[in-house]
Amino acid sequence: MADVIQLWSPLIQGGFAVFALLLLGVNVWLVKQLLKVLKDNSQVIAGNTRAIESVATIASDTKGLMQQLRDELLKRPCLLDECGLDEQE
Questions:
Q1: What is the rounded CA–CA span in Å between residue 48 and residue 42?
Q2: Distance of alpha carbon 68 from alpha carbon 76, whole angstroms
Q3: C-alpha angle 66-69-70 in degrees, rounded to nearest 5
Q4: pLDDT of the residue at 33
């Protein structure tokens, strides 16, 4: 029995070494794929950030224009009786 184990021992050790190298190769490939995905996602995130900043700029410009319009409307005289609703209610 000991002769059989000694006969298979180098084969088993070699198989283990090949399997370990194969797993190492798979890990390296997975890390490369992960880095590629992270690089693509960072470009998407950067694009989204630029879009959000442009929308925020437009929103702040619109807010300023709305405040100017409000101020202009408040400067106009009131055409209703005592700046309220007509007394038809």
A1: 10
A2: 13
A3: 85
A4: 94
